[in-house]
Each structure stands twice: as structure tokens, then as C-alpha cells.
Write a structure and sequence with these properties.
single chain; 234 residues; alpha+beta; Alpha-Beta Plaits; four-stranded antiparallel beta sheet; 12 strands; globular
Length: 234
């Protein structure tokens, strides 16, 4: 039976070697172009690894994401995407259709937690992991540019190389490749040693680079980092 379109897409065939936080940030980076994302669920348990759920605010966003990204090479593996069989808890609460999980499962979970707590050794407190979805929708921060490293304030003439600034510290080459290889003519991403905040992206021609520039200039890689894309200085 075909699953009806809904707010949540289910993705499998994901690379199981990728750490959970990196996986969630990368999924956010490539799927937020389709519309506001409310949640991303990725678990590393034996049963659920290699899978993820992306919850969109609008059903149309989920539909466009499914159609556009089906088979997209994500960490060297083609994604398999379909609509989730049921609404996420978040969407169910918004609709007013949320129902609590059976109490038996909750009680078993509590027992397991208590058992695990007894086994665990005391460990020094550490800061909670940063949720990549926290603060989604915050106002864009002004892009920070180093005039010594990139084009001046005046726009450079179109060419096949793009200059990226205001990149967050956790940006990786793979993350940028996923964003830019959606556009025809993509060749490569070049990071700058010792600088996490800037990078270069090369295309076959200036027409292709201009298309990517127009689409991704101002794209929020994280809720607080709006990437600035301009033509590189020749």
C-alpha cells in the first residue's frame, strides 16, 4: 500500500560510518533548501543506523525534497527516500492527533535506564551536545569577510570560481560538495588551510557558477551562519 504524502520523509541506505551529529548537520544542510525543517531524527542503534527522518513544516517541502533528492549520492551512497508511515510526534501535536505511547514500553524504558545507571561509573559533567536544529529561523547574521582573503566590497566580474565566506567552524569539504554538486558543471571544493570560515568552489563555466551563486548566497548552513557566496577575485 502506498504511503500518503505527509510532513516527514524517511531516508535509508545512509552511510553508517558517519557520526550522528555530523549526519544531522549534513542532512540539515542539504534539505533546508526545500523549506523550514522542524526536526531531524537519526539514531545510531544497531536496528536504526543507516536511517533518518526529516520533519518539514509543510507537506509541499517534503514532497519536493523526496522528488529532488531521491538517489542523491550522500557520503558516497545513494539515498533512498519515501514518506514516513506515520506523522512525527511534533506534527501530531500540532494537528491535535498525538497519543501517548503505551505505558508498558515507558515502564520498560525506565527499568532499563535504572539498570544502566547502576552499571555506569561516575563521570565528570560535560556540556550537552549542540543540537544543529536549535534556533532554526533566527535572523541571518551579517557575513564576515577578510578583505585580504577575498574580493573587495564591489562585486567581481562573473567567472567559474566562487568564493564562500562566513562558514561555521564545523563546515567540511563533504558538506559543501553536497550543497554545490546539485548544480550542473560542479568541479570541486577547495578549503583554505588554517581557515574554517572561507572556501572556494569551482565550476566548468561562469554560467554554472552564477546559477549556484544566486541559489545559495545567504543559505544558512547553521541557524546562525548565513553563507555569503560571491565570484572569486581573478
Amino acid at each position: 500500500m502506498e504511503v500518503r504524502p505527509n510532513h516527514t520523509i524517511y531516508i535509508n541506505n545512509l552511510n553508517e560510518k558517519i557520526k550522528k551529529e555530523e549526519l544531522k548537520k549534513s542532512l540539515y544542510a542539504i534539505f533546508s533548501q526545500f523549506g523550514p525543517i522542524m526536526d531531524i531524527v537519526a539514531l545510531k542503534t544497531l536496528k536504526l543506523r543507516g536511517q533518518a527522518w526529516v520533519v518539514f513544516k509543510e507537506i509541499n517541502s517534503a514532497t519536493n525534497a523526496l522528488r529532488s533528492m531521491q538517489g542523491f549520492p550522500f557520503y558516497d551512497k545513494p539515498m533512498r527516500i519515501q514518506y514516513a508511515k506515520t506523522d512525527s510526534d511534533m506534527i501530531s501535536k500540532l494537528k491535535g492527533t498525538f497519543t501517548e505511547r503505551p505505558k508498558k514500553a515507558k515502564e520498560e524504558k525506565k527499568k532499563k535506564k535504572a539498570k544502566d545507571a547502576k552499571k555506569a561509573q561516575p563521570a565528570p559533567a560535560s556540556a550537552p551536545p549542540v543540537n544543529p536544529m536549535m534556533g532554526f529561523g533566527m535572523p541571518m547574521q551579517p557575513a564576515m569577510m577578510n578583505p585580504m582573503m577575498g574580493p573587495p566590497m564591489g562585486e567581481q566580474p562573473p567567472n567559474q570560481i566562487l568564493f564562500l565566506t562566513n562558514l561555521p567552524e564545523e563546515t567540511t569539504e563533504v558538506m559543501l560538495q553536497m550543497l554545490f554538486n546539485q548544480f550542473p558543471g560542479f568541479k570541486e571544493v577547495r578549503l583554505v588551510p588554517g581557515r574554517h570560515d572561507i572556501a572556494f568552489v569551482e565550476f566548468d563555466n561562469e554560467m554554472s557558477s552564477a546559477t549556484a551563486k544566486d541559489a545559495l548566497n545567504g543559505f544558512k548552513i547553521t541557524p546562525t551562519h548565513a553563507m555569503k557566496v560571491s565570484f572569486a577575485k581573478k
